[in-house]
Amino acid sequence: MDLPDLELDKLGPTRDYLHDAAKILGKLQQAFLPKSPRDWHYGLEVTLRGISTQQFELNGQPTKALIDLVQHKLRLGDQNWRLRENPPAQLFTEVGKWLTAQGIDTPVEEPQFSDGVAEFDHEQADAYAAALWWIDQQFRQLRGDLTDGVTAPILLYPHHFDLSLVLFPWDDERQVAVGWSTGDETIPEPYIYLTAYPEPPDFKKTELPAEAQWQSEGFSGAVLLYNELAKADNPAELFRHFTEPIFSTFRTTPKK
Question: Residues 78-104: what's their mean pLDDT?
Answer without folding.
Answer: 97
